[in-house]
Every structure is written in structure tokens, then in C-alpha cells.
Amino acid sequence: MTVKVLIPTPLQKLTQDKATVECEGTTIADMVESLEAQCPGIKARLCDESGKLRRFVNFYLNSEDIRFLENEATELSDGDEVSIVPAIAGG
Question: For the segment 54-88, what is each residue's pLDDT rounded down to a tens digit?
């Protein structure tokens, strides 16, 4: 499955300044591995040491938060769009 991944500005230095990257995968976890293969080092920004998605990085599949779906096991379809949105804290 080919999906379009929208990359936030702070991570674009790892994608050669690309705002979108085409990735392969049947799940979010597969997509992260495909993204890492194309953009080495990005997985460490998205996942913790155990390989789980970091709590402060939000993923949206076609505008739906994957935390309300199956998290990294969320299935992807050809042509889906995945947005990566880092959480912003302030005070």
C-alpha cells in the first residue's frame, strides 16, 4: 500500500526538506519502518526505545486520530494520508 505521509516542519531536515513522503505499509508501524528506510534517523524521533510511538507525537489517518483506532496497528489502504503532528506545550 502506498500512503502519503505529511511531515511536520521540525522533522523535514530528516526528509531532505520534503513536506510529504510516499511510504509503503499495511499498518502505521509498517509505514514508520518504510519512512525510516527512506529517511534514516526519523524513527528515533517518532518512537521510543521499545519501538512504540511516542506519546507527544500524534498521528492522524485521513484526519482521524489513530489513538481512537488501533494505534500503530491501524491498517492503511492505498492512497491514505497520514499526518504526523508533534504535540505543542506552552505555559
Answer: 999 999 999 999 999 999 999 999 999 999 999 88
> Is 74 strand, coil or helix?
coil
Distance of CA 28 to the CA centre of its chain: 7
List the beta bridge partners of residue 86. 57
pTM of the model: 0.93
Domain 2-86, second-level architecture: Roll (3.10)
Show Cβ contacts of residue 53 under 8 Å, excluding neighbours closer than 6 positions.
28, 32, 46, 47, 59, 71, 72
Domain ranges of the chain: 2-86
